[in-house]
TrEMBL record:
Residues 23-277 form the EAL domain. It comes from Oryzomicrobium terrae. The chain holds residues 486 to 764 of 764 of the full protein. This is Putative response regulator receiver modulated diguanylate cyclase/phosphodiesterase.
Length: 279
């Protein structure tokens, strides 16, 4: 079944045989890595801009080969999506996110939420919610402690189905965020129909802050849209104090980015938290 998934998405293009073979090898390696539990997560802190308080973290998948080399998510996530392996990958990421929640709570960091990315193919699967609830139950975590990040392109597909599925997640207590918000500005009407808790400003728009382009800043528009619709906003890719201050001044609640911390191993996150809030 896994092989069929791969070949289904493969276009034959003369001259690209070796690239295709390479991709196939990597897909098999990913399947094996998932089988051996070698995909792990890094956690990137999310911080309340006004107070600096840690509000949560985003779980980001990481793949380290036995050689110590890493494969970038920009390579293996699209591959996982094209081959259907994203379903297994997503479950493993969620399970690790749950374990991180348990450890963070154990370390006295209550009221935190860990966000996981859910791709279109996962979301299209019937039974995703049941799978998620089972994993949470097994790990002793409640839906309130998990946030689901879906992309704008997913949100704009077959609105009726998306609305129903999201509502079912929401009813269980999961928070829903729209990731990379602003990158697909074709229609905003879907926002009104979907049960969404927060918008995540794409890092491309955060990068524009403080440049000549910022007069018509999309980041500012996103903050206004969120305010109008009763949603909160988090900015991703916050790299400078100027960006953090700009965002906060305009009403953006939370931030995530290198200015605060890179994606970290759980122990490093606990260390980071301990050293910035001594006592
Ligand atoms: P994303 O969801 O938009 O995640 C944010 C990306 O920005 C991450 O890249 C993160 O490391 C990076 N980043 C964080 N802070 C900064 C910053 O201040 N500046 C800059 N320039 N970059 C920053 P990463 O970890 O390489 O992940 C790439 C993408 O892969 C993610 O983009 C997400 O779409 C996808 N991905 C990662 N893990 C998963 C997963 O478990 N499931 C799914 N479906 N997708 C995942
Ligand atoms: Ca994300
Ligand atoms: Ca994002
Ligand atoms: Ca992004």
């Amino acid at each position: 079944a896994k092989r069929r998934g791969l070949s289904q998405h493969e276009d034959y293009r003369p001259g690209l045989e070796s690239a295709t073979a390479e991709r196939y090898r990597l897909a098999m390696a990913l399947r094996d890595a998932l089988g051996r539990g070698e995909i792990h997560i890094a956690l990137q802190p999310q911080v309340e801009l006004a107070s600096g308080r840690l509000t949560g973290a985003e779980a980001l998948a990481r793949w380290t080969l036995p050689s110590g080399e890493t494969v970038p998510p920009g390579i293996f996530i699209p591959l996982a999506e094209a081959t259907g392996l994203i379903v297994t990958l997503g479950e493993q990421v969620l399970r690790q996110a749950c374990r991180a929640v348990v450890q963070l709570v154990g370390a006295g960091l209550t009221n935190l939420r860990v966000a996981v990315n859910v791709s279109t193919l996962q979301f299209a699967r019937e039974g995703l919610l049941q799978d998620f609830l089972r994993i949470l139950r097994e790990e002793g975590v409640t839906p309130r402690q998990i946030e689901i990040e879906i992309t704008e392109s997913l949100a704009m597909q077959d609105i009726g189905t998306v609305q129903q599925r999201l509502q079912a997640f929401r009813d269980q207590g999961f928070e829903i965020a729209i990731d990379d918000f602003g990158t697909g500005f074709s229609s905003l009407s879907y926002l009104r129909r979907l049960p969404i808790d927060r918008l995540k400003i794409d890092q491309a728009f955060v990068a524009e802050i403080g440049t000549v382009d910022d007069e018509n800043a999309i980041a500012e528009m996103v903050i206004r849209i969120a305010q109008r619709m009763g949603m909160t906003v988090i900015a991703e890719g916050v790299e400078t104090p100027t960006q953090a201050a700009w965002l906060q001044a305009r009403g953006c609640q939370d931030g995530q980015g290198y200015h605060f911390a890179r994606p970290l191993a759980l122990e490093d996150l606990l260390q980071w938290q301990a050293t910035r809030n001594p006592g």
